[in-house]
Amino acid sequence: MFAGLLLLVGAGTVRAQSLALNELRAQARQEQIDSSRVLLLCKISDQYWALSTDSAAAYAERALALAQRIKYRHGEGEALNRLGAALRESNLARALELFQLSLRLAESIHDRPLQAQNLRSIGIIYVYLRDRKQGLSYYFQALRIGQALHDEQRIVLELSNIGLAYDVFNQLDSAQYFQQQAFQLAQRLHAPTNYILYGLGNVARKQGDITQARTYYRRSIRESAALRHLRSSNFAYVGLATLYQNIGKSDSSIYYAGLGCQAAQANGFLRGVLNASTLLTQEFKASGSADSALKYQSLMLTMKDTLFGQEKVMRLQNINYQERQHKAQVGAERSRMQARYRTYGMLAGLVGLLLIIGLLIRNYRQQQQANATLQASLADLKAAQFQLVQREKMAFLGELTAGVAHELQNPLGFVKQFAAVSTELIDEINGAQQLARDGKLEREILDGLKQNMLSISQHGQRATAIIKGMLEHARTGSGQREPTSLNHLAEESWQMAYQSVQHEHPAFTATLTTHFDPDLPLIHVIAQDLSRVLLNLCTNALYAVRQRQLTTGAAYQPEVRISTRLLSGSVELTVSDNGVGIPEDVKAKIFHPFFTTKPVGEGTGLGLSLSHDIVSTGHGGTLTVASKEGEGTTFIITLPPSAITG
């Protein structure tokens, strides 16, 4: 899925690596000239970038602090770029901000090589985000600067990056052309080709040339190992694993994907970990290794959450907005300067003065229109990113639920089957066999065994119903509204939540008090969606009363109350508890996405947010909360008249 994001050569790439890290660190200890020391620290950061991003970031920060202290502008720009490269995996938004700062500094001091380096770095981020137009635009700007400077080493990097970008967007002819150009020039310069070989291997694999692709990947692996370049090792290993997956060699695919995952984890290369763990999850699922599949799926979801979480997406969109706002401010300042010069030239006459006033009014209106456009753009971006993150989270949860449900269904089928067979055998024994010895006692024992078998069968049927519900939650697309008994749905949701909590905490008990309106008509809702809401509210209520029980002791009796009633033109359902309650400062954020008060590992912060969305957006109703800390909480669902009339 994410193999196309295996990118790219950036700032801090291995440029011949003629000096070992020990030698560079020794030079840094001896160097007396501060400006030279800044550049030396940047070189050390370059070397570590391929080995450990944390170490690369530490040396870049040292270089930046020294450059700012001595006011060394060129060194400050180099250090900002290195720091952005080191942080690109863990904080994409911050990396983009650093690259933009470095680019503006380079433009202010007319440092063309540093401009090219930052253009390439910004291009990498836009290709990460699948923005083809922006990414290639920055790459070609960097290439033009390299050609103008006649810097052939830089040209190799830019050509290879362009080739890898075209590979991401599956334009294989263009990808092959630029990679071959880069390879020929690199060979003439005796420069490293580990990234280029990986790119050529990708093209050959996608074109179906298995032998050629395998050769390129293995050459890239050997060269990466010789350069001690963990990041490009990850690319080549995962490329080779993907090749073996395509031709059905699962063992080889798992082996090389595992090596790629290890290399990426050692380097701190989160995207490399994501790509390798995604492939390993697919292979272990296909082979039926549930434990290994779940392990790597958990790792994959963690990487996705880190790289594409809502807060980071919002931050990144904000930085894009700030950059456009900065450009707009620069343009406005330029317009003001031009208007001022025109004013000086036309002070001699009234006609000139009137013309200046007209120009100023026009510029003011244009600026107002530009500001309005930027505000509208920001609102659109926020809405788009919110929908994107919600879809991603639901897709991940749905995939995990479906996998667990399918894994449980087979053994439950066997439980039901053998329970039924056992019951039939016992019927035959009781009906046909003449019992010897104490027949009455033996018959009582057999009757008890039969009752046990019936219980097994009943519980198997219950588990099947639960699995059916899980599979329904995992389906994509919107469900159909159908007449539903709200009382029955609430009762069923409570039983599922209570059984789940008791399974995890067998000693825990709670009292359920129901006040169901017997005259409540069937309501037209999406049953599986509303069931998800009720299950979440009941689970939260049980969690709250159990937390209070842990701190209060035996004198406290946990209780959950569920009620339904028909109002004038609407339906109301309440779920109340006498648990720990919700503080006032928390209550205002309770429906925010990803906000949770539970400890790490016990909650994702999505339950109440999704429940609110299902009730309000999916059914046109409202979900509100009333609570008093230390006394309890009540959630109130109100459904509109359309739910009654259908």
UniProtKB/TrEMBL annotation:
Its EC number is 2.7.13.3. Residues 403-643 form the Histidine kinase domain. GO terms for molecular function: ATP binding. Keywords: ATP-binding, Membrane, Nucleotide-binding, Phosphoprotein, Transmembrane, Transmembrane helix. Gene3D superfamilies: 1.10.287.130, Histidine kinase-like ATPase, C-terminal domain, Tetratricopeptide repeat domain. Pfam families: HATPase_c. InterPro entries: HATPase_C_sf, HATPase_dom, His_kinase_dom, HisK_dim/P_dom, HisK_dim/P_sf, Sig_transdc_His_kin-like_C, TPR-like_helical_dom_sf, TPR_rpt. PROSITE patterns: HIS_KIN (PS50109). CDD domains: HisKA. It comes from the Bacteria. It catalyses: ATP + protein L-histidine = ADP + protein N-phospho-L-histidine. The chain crosses the membrane at residues 344-361. SUPFAM superfamilies: ATPase domain of HSP90 chaperone/DNA topoisomerase II/histidine kinase, Homodimeric domain of signal transducing histidine kinase, TPR-like. PANTHER family: SENSOR HISTIDINE KINASE (PTHR43065), TWO-COMPONENT SENSOR PPRA (PTHR43065:SF42). This is histidine kinase. It comes from Hymenobacter tibetensis. The lineage of its organism: Bacteria, Pseudomonadati, Bacteroidota, Cytophagia, Cytophagales.
